[in-house]
Design a protein that fits this description.
Distance between the termini: 6 Å
Bound molecules: NADP nicotinamide-adenine-dinucleotide phosphate
Order of helices and strands: EHEHEEEEEEHEEHEEHEEHEEEEH
CATH class of the largest domain: Alpha Beta
Mean pLDDT: 97
Strand order of the largest sheet: 5-6-7-2-1-8-9-10
Structural class: alpha/beta
Number of helices: 7
Radius of gyration: 20 Å
Number of strands: 18
CATH topology of the largest domain: Dihydrodipicolinate Reductase, domain 2
Low-confidence stretches: none
């Protein structure tokens, strides 16, 4: 049984902890590393403003904490080159700080005794592999992209296979994250430094190069952006497509439905309920297409609207990756 460690117990580290617990795999989690006091981590694991209160018992232990009797070691080591995974026999490190994304930094986890590293974002120098789209073959270092590309890429794949795409515009409307500011502050991306809960904030996103690598025929034909909105979690991808062949909204929805039932099961889903963003919270899919909002104008101009929980959906993909990477 592979043994896991998480480096960085922020939003994604803690959500993955919950997903592993929900899937009955938390026993594989041997150690976690973060900077906060242990009592604070235990508190944040138990009480979560988005995903609710965990019913299970989480208690401090001499070396960390336990959940329902399973001990997890808590380390507080800010320097990656001082971590030591070997005595803990860690096989896979989930690198969830968002800080150490270059392969030379991932290599430090291997030097510390781990076998494999799963990032929770893009790598600075390694290609991304997106679940359901290009997730074969895998290597020791996996860079699974972010929540946005995990929503958009499977849908582009479906439409590309079905009849082909001429060009794409994506705008991902998403709640704020810890990489924004609560009140106005200096920031290298100027708009990113504006008060997150106070404004609709246009954002640049970096998914275009990865999409162009996965879909080379679309090189130079993709534009992407994000719009951050004053909610703490949840997202809606607005995907406009110029298609190569004529279709209609019902046919597009049928195509999505078929993929949701077979090839993209667990990754893509479709709903016709009139949901809002809070209804997608704790949904495990990468993309939940809102079928009632699917539009096709003049046969070839299509719009797909897809919901996702940027924390829970993405953490489910991380758990899928862990299963695939495990012995
Ligand atoms: N949030 C999302 O919706 C989402 C979705 C997909 C992917 N991601 C990606 O996942 C990564 C993490 O995002 P997040 O939202 O979970 O961020 P986060 O909440 O800020 O979590 C990062 C955690 O790592 C801790 N940390 C900082 N430096 C550390 C160090 N040297 N050693 C150990 N722990 C350290 C942070 O502590 P401090 O708070 O004290 O700095 C924090 O608890 C980012 O790359 C992000 O792009 C996020």
């Amino acid at each position: 049984m592979s043994r896991y460690a998480i480096n960085g117990m922020g939003r994604i580290g803690r959500t993955l902890f919950r997903v592993l617990h929900e899937r009955g795999q938390v026993k594989r989690l041997i150690a976690v590393n973060d900077l906060m006091p242990k009592e604070n981590l235990i508190y944040l694991l138990k009480y979560d403003s988005i995903h609710g209160t965990l019913a299970n018992t989480i208690q401090p232990t001499a070396n960390g904490f336990s959940i329902d009797g399973h001990d997890i070691i808590y380390i507080q080591q800010p320097e990656i080159n001082k971590l030591n995974w070997q005595p803990l026999q860690i096989d896979i490190v989930i690198e969830a700080t968002g800080l150490f994304t270059h392969s030379t930094e991932m290599q430090q986890h291997v030097a510390a005794g781990a076998q494999k590293v799963l990032l929770t974002t893009y790598s600075k120098d390694l290609p991304s592999t997106i679940w359901g789209v290009n997730h074969q073959p895998i290597s020791s270092f996996v860079s699974p992209g972010d929540c946005t590309i995990n929503c958009v890429a499977p849908l582009l794949q479906i439409m590309e296979k079905a009849g082909g795409i001429e060009s794409v515009h994506v705008n991902v409307i998403q709640g704020y994250t810890t990489r924004q500011q609560l009140i106005d502050a200096p920031y290298k991306g100027l708009r990113r430094g504006r008060a997150a809960a106070h404004s609709i904030i246009p954002f640049e996103v970096n998914i275009r190069p990865v999409l162009e690598t996965i879909f080379p025929a679309l090189s130079g034909k993709i534009e992407t952006m994000s719009t951050r909105v004053p909610i703490p979690c949840g997202a809606l991808a607005d995907i406009s497509l110029i298609l190569k062949t004529k279709t209609n909204a019902d046919s597009v929805n049928e195509l999505i439905q078929q993929n949701a039932e077979f090839e993209m099961k667990n990754t893509v889903a479709i709903t016709f309920d009139p949901i809002v963003s809070s209804d997608v919270l704790s949904n495990p899919h990468s993309a939940l297409v809102d079928g009632a909002l699917t539009k096709v104008t003049n046969g070839t101009h299509a719009k797909l609207m897809a919901w996702f929980d940027n924390e829970w959906g993405y953490s489910n993909r991380l758990a899928d990756w862990l299963t695939k990477m495990s012995r």
